[in-house]
Amino acid sequence: KVKGRYFMTCGEYDETMHQRLIDEQGFINDMNKALTNREFLFYLQPKYELSTSRIIGAEALVRWLHPQKGFIEPNRFIPIFEENGFIFSLDKYIWEEVCKLLRRWLDEGRPIHPISVNISRVDLYSDELVGFLDELIKKYNIPARLLELELTESAYFNNPEQIVDITQKLQKMGFIILMDDFGSGYSSLNMLKDVNVNVLKVDLKFLQNTSQNNRSGRILNAVVYMAKCLELPIIIEGVETLQQSEFLQSIGCSWVQGYYYSRPIPVKDYEKLIDQMEYLPSAAELCPCTLP
Ligand code: C2E
Ligand code: MG
Ligand code: MG
Ligand code: MG
């Protein structure tokens, strides 16, 4: 296997890389057992309508509760699982857990809104992907639009035809496709031309050090305007401060997600949060035809 990091010069080999090499073997040894033992779980990070601060949905973000190593963040193990092919197994598990939760909320008659899950660029190589998602929503009897799918923009770079094809198939089945990490790659505009996504999620790096007049602020402003021209809803990720939130409001951004509003939180805490909200559209209002 050719792995980029083996070709790095000494100067690039830093502590992070060192830690990664140590992590890697341990994670690979433990991953299958961890899946069987249900050590993976997901947190939910709410997404908000900026003008009303109403929750419009949430993103499911995986965590690993390792019996010895404790709580492990995805950036440490996802890249490793993407390299060794385990990611698809993990993702299928998380998607199913999310469907179980949506099913429970529907059964309990809770106000319900979509939860988005992440799809690794590696998952797109599997012939099973579309069929698996189709069977999953049938198994739990969930309207496709409640399980939103986040595809990372970097998937497009290596695999433009595949991503166009898969996106079309999933949309025909009723899934909403969000383009995650928009603007982080090398071919964002090409991607936008070819792939007919439903929502843009702008990479959180875009928000760092933005203000009305600086360069990143103006770029963000232009991206929000571009999304308007394309009639594409847009979510800005990584909102950490009141200033950022005000700036986004001033440029007419509609949806946000970030630590300023809420960190990713356990499902129980998320349920408390939505129970406190004064108004949320009910499940029936959202999908009158498809719900049982
Ligand atoms: P992502 O999908 O772009 O998710 C956003 C990441 O930004 C999350 O990190 C979230 O906790 C973090 N974030 C949210 N708001 C803020 C903020 O205001 N400031 C800062 N600095 N960060 C913020 P997390 O949970 O550590 O996940 C990292 C990445 O791991 C995700 O990026 C996604 O690419 C991947 N990932 C997470 N869960 C899954 C999963 O179930 N499957 C796959 N394939 N990838 C996943
Ligand atoms: Mg995401
Ligand atoms: Mg993102
Ligand atoms: Mg990301």
TrEMBL record:
Residues 24-278 form the EAL domain. It comes from the Bacteria. This is Diguanylate cyclase (GGDEF)-like protein/PAS domain S-box-containing protein. It comes from Pectinatus haikarae. The lineage of its organism: Bacteria, Bacillati, Bacillota, Negativicutes, Selenomonadales.
